[in-house]
Specification:
heterodimer, A: 354 residues, alpha/beta, D-Maltodextrin-Binding Protein, domain 2, 2 domains, eleven-stranded mixed β-sheet, 18% strand, B: 561 residues, mainly alpha, MetI-like fold, two-stranded antiparallel ribbon, 24 helices, 72% helix
């Protein structure tokens, strides 16, 4: 009787122990889940503004070349910068990868970057680097007009060859372009229009107000209108060449053209985050991305950015599209200094005009 | 769950106060503290307190226009969505549908709720634009425009009406038959009975549904982002754009604070509305279904036609999604392919894994938390009860963008630096999406008279027995409702968590948004189809388990709230 009880007691004890072990196991695995995951030996973390389908082949090549693992996540330029600024006191990434220069000049103003001049720095033209090395260009990305071929045919139009062509009533409610509140594409577009009007703001805004009558919607992302134009939901739009050519590669029947007055271009940049947890790996990624090692991979991967490094020639097909295009320069310092004011004026006078 | 039992004891039970203090601590940490950080950001400038940014916002006509638009939009969506939800719920419960048709309506109503954001909006854009499948290809209209009021209201009502359906259906199913029977036997006509018995009994549910929809629309930034166009600015979208586009955290914070006012107003209106009369159905929830057809034949046919029409339209929108996920390039190359699914199950695996882990952890935590708060609010009297209810609703009523940014500011630094972990996303889901479970608990409890518990006590049953035998079966559906709601939202939400995803933890919905902006419509559609499939499986399992546990006294499908 007593023996039986003792056995029972032991069994209960063992069961309790099992339960405790199991609990400890559950608790420890939960703890692992809830804290940051264990880090690989050498990992660089990055916010990529380039879409995943452009960034991934680049990052994979870097991993192969350097043995450093890249942990990256993609955000639009506005969101990526907002995160970097919000995380200022506790940076989550080492590098901000890709994205138009105006995002980087805005970040520069917020003091979120650490100066670093990569090996290729001295070989780049002035437009492709910050004088203090806070950011460096990895590619160039001009704007283009993209129109739906069928739409043009239906309305007896040629592909627009002047900014004024877009004012044709045939385009009424059929043009899509990006919203300046969210999109670097839109900001580059507005500065292009200002530049075309020799920075006469009143003239430029008068044009934009006229253009607005033909605008169907201002999209939140720079490439947001490409699919609608491809599908014929919209007739035409103003996009970065990389997005326009990607639309055509997907099989949509679109025309790409340039205004004879000229159109702007945005340098795509990279920067080291101030207070990065692994700055050495970050610098290696920047060295690699600004060198021909990465930029010579753009063409084989059918990514239609123009390489920033003078030693890398663009893909012949891309060069053919660009032949004869008048690409004008936007002064980054001037644009950076006036960015906020110009966007606010655009919101007040163009976006909210109705 | 066991803590809820404590509430049944008499006043002065120390454990009860421990539970209340614990909830308050959680609410302080995960609701008030981040909100406080956000407000501090809005009202301070370089160390000093300032009202300049608030004044600037309030005098800006564009922001006032956005506020007005938001209120009108939320009211329209609330009204239309509640009407559609009531129609669906009433038809499903009171028109003698065959089981199969009822399941079909169930499924159609569930689809929008369990879909990732943007799916309805994107389907609308393809259906109603100048080359839209419906406006152009079907109706032959030229230059139809999709952006603006009509499509935004329609898309939001379509997306959120299932909230009303799910909130109203169990109420309609359980409304005292006896009362209706009594009204009929007293000679009431069908319309009289509906107007004087059925409808008043549904009123708390209708107000509740309207509140849910109003709040959902007020907080929705995804639909207006796609469909509102240039002439319909709304506050959540403007706040989102202010923060992410203009790098103006402060301006966004101020804009979002404007939304707090209407959200609070609606909340208190609802409380006043439901507090005026007693809606107790004396015998508890009861289980028997109506015996006689109580709807005229012509009306029944009309209801069927309306519901089946709506269901068919929803079916069409989702067929479009499945189609987009299985052709090479939507609109350009219709060759069938499984490539998009290959992409999501290779490159997309990290996002899928992270999302499932986070959803499966959030689900039980959120379900439990929701029921405990609901029980405290619905059954107990204690100082600060209304404050607790209000605070527990804040994260639900606030635009997700603001909750996300608040969390980002609050938890990036000590003392609770959890940015970049799964914990911050889980906390966000638990405190943002548990109010569904809370409200369901409150609504269910409102239908059960206290005398049932008292009877149990006076028959000698202890606290635990009473809880297990009487209260547990009554609020079990609410617990499962909470589980389902948290899981569904954990799989499909984006507005708050887009700011909380990190290098270490990412989510499927964020990938979908990225795919959309990358023009990769195929993978975006494939991800959406995958999410819907997972949610259908998990909610069906919950349904089954609940059905088992309820021992067949209630129809399981009636309880999927």
């Amino acid at each position: 009787m007593a023996g039986k009880q003792a056995t029972a007691g032991r069994t209960v004890g063992r069961a309790r122990q099992d339960r405790l072990t199991r609990r400890a196991f559950v608790a420890s695995s939960l703890a692992t889940l809830l804290t940051a995951r264990a880090k690989a030996a050498d990992t660089v973390k990055a916010y990529s503004i380039w879409p995943e389908n452009y960034a991934r082949p680049m990052m994979e090549a870097f991993e192969k070349a350097s043995g450093i693992h890249v942990n990256f996540i993609r955000f639009s330029s506005g969101e990526a910068l907002a995160r970097v600024v919000a995380e200022k006191n506790n940076p989550q990434v080492d590098v901000l990868f890709g994205g138009p220069v105006e995002t980087f000049t805005a970040g520069q103003g917020q003091g979120v970057f650490e100066a670093y001049k990569p090996a290729a720095w001295s070989e780049l033209p002035a437009r492709f680097k910050d004088a203090n090395g806070l950011w460096t260009a990895i590619a160039d990305d001009p704007l283009v007009f993209m129109s739906n071929t069928q739409f043009l045919a239906q309305h007896n139009l040629y592909a627009p060859a002047s900014w004024d062509d877009l004012l044709d009533p045939a385009y009424s409610g059929m043009i899509q372009m990006a919203d300046a509140r969210t999109s670097g594409t839109a900001v580059t577009r507005i500065f292009s229009i200002l530049q075309v009007h020799d920075r006469n703001e009143d003239e430029a805004f008068a044009y934009m107000k006229k253009l607005r009558k033909n605008v169907q919607v201002y999209t939140k992302s720079g490439g947001g209108g490409t699919l609608p134009v491809g599908l014929g939901q919209a007739g035409a739009g103003i996009f970065f060449i990389v997005d326009a050519l990607f639309t055509r590669q997907k099989g949509y029947d679109v025309q790409i053209s340039f205004p004879r007055e000229g159109i702007g271009s945005a340098a795509e940049c990279i920067a080291l985050i101030k207070g990065a947890k692994n700055p050495d790996a970050g610098r290696k990624l920047i060295d690699w991305a600004t060198s021909p090692a990465m930029q010579s991979l753009l063409a084989p991967n059918k990514i239609n950015f123009i390489p920033a490094h003078p030693a890398v020639k663009p893909d012949p097909a891309l060069a053919a599209v660009l032949a004869g295009a008048k690409i004008i320069e936007i002064d980054d310092t001037w644009a950076g200094a006036n960015r906020q004011r110009i966007i606010e004026r655009w919101i007040a006078e163009v976006l909210n005009a109705s | 769950m066991k803590y809820a039992a404590i509430g049944l004891r008499l006043r002065g039970d120390p454990l009860r106060w421990v539970v209340i203090a614990g909830i308050w601590l959680l609410l302080f940490l995960f609701v008030l503290y981040p909100l406080g950080c956000l407000i501090a950001r809005a009202f301070t400038d370089q160390g000093g307190v300032t009202f300049a940014s608030v004044a600037a916002t309030l005098t800006n006509p564009n922001h006032l226009r956005a506020l007005r638009n938001s209120l009108i939009l939320a009211t329209l969506v609330g009204a239309i969505g509640t009407l559609a939800g009531f129609l669906f719920a009433f038809t499903a419960e009171r028109t003698d549908l065959t089981h199969r048709v009822r399941r079909l309506l169930d499924f159609a109503a569930l689809l929008p709720l369990i879909s990732p954001p943007f799916t309805t909006s994107i389907a609308f854009v393809f259906s109603f634009g100048p080359k839209g499948l419906i406006t152009h290809d079907l109706l032959g209209l030229q230059n139809a425009q999709v952006y603006g009021w009509n499509s935004t209201v329609a898309a939001e009502a379509l997306t959120y009406f299932p909230l009303a359906f799910l909130a109203l259906r169990p109420l309609i199913a359980s409304i005292g038959n006896d009362l209706e029977e009594a009204a009929y036997s007293l000679g009431g006509s069908r319309w009289q009975v509906f107007r004087t018995v059925t409808l008043p009994l549904c009123l708390p549910g209708i107000a509740n549904a309207f509140l849910l929809l109003f709040a959902a629309s007020l907080a929705d930034f995804a639909t207006p982002l796609i469909l509102a166009g240039n002439n319909l600015p709304v506050l959540p979208t403007d706040a989102f754009l202010q923060i992410t586009g203009m790098f103006d955290l402060k301006g966004g914070a101020v804009l979002s604070l404007l939304l707090l006012v209407p959200a609070a107003l609606v909340f208190f209106t609802q409380r006043w509305l439901t507090g005026r009369r007693s809606y107790v159905t004396i015998t508890g929830k009861g289980g028997a279904r109506p015996q006689a057809a109580k709807v005229a034949r012509w009306l029944r046919c009309l209801l069927w036609a309306a519901c089946i029409g709506l269901a068919a339209f929803i079916g069409y929108l989702y067929a479009l999604l499945v189609y987009a996920s299985s052709v090479v390039a939507f609109g350009a190359n219709s060759a069938p392919t499984l490539e998009h699914y290959r992409v999501i199950f290779t490159e997309g695996i990290p996002a899928i894994k992270d999302t499932l882990i986070i959803a499966l952890i959030s689900m039980p935590l959120g379900g439990l938390y929701g029921v405990v708060v609901g029980y405290l609010v619905g059954r107990m009297r204690f100082a600060g009860r209304q404050a607790l209810e209000l605070v527990s609703m804040i994260n639900y009523a606030l635009p997700g963008t603001i909750v996300g940014i608040g969390y980002l500011i609050a938890f990036n630094d000590e003392p609770l630096a959890i940015t970049g972990t799964a914990a911050i996303i889980i906390a966000c889901y638990v405190f943002r999406y548990s109010p569904t479970g809370t409200r369901t608990t409150v609504a269910l409890l409102a239908q059960v008279d206290r005398s049932i518990e008292e009877a149990s006590f006076s028959l000698g049953a202890g606290t635990l027995t009473t809880f297990r035998r009487v209260m547990l079966p009554l609020i079990l559906p609410a617990f499962f409702a909470g589980l389902g709601a948290v899981f569904i939202r954990a799989m499909t939400a984006i507005s708050a968590t887009i700011f909380l995803v990190s290098i270490n933890w990412t989510l499927i919905t964020v990938r979908i948004l990225e795919n959309m902006t990358e023009l990769s419509l195929g993978p975006a559609a494939a991800f959406s189809v995958f999410v819907i499939a997972v949610v259908v499986v998990v909610t069906s399992v919950l349904d089954l388990v609940l059905g088992r546990m309820m021992g067949g006294t209630l129809q399981p499908s009636a309880l999927r709230t």
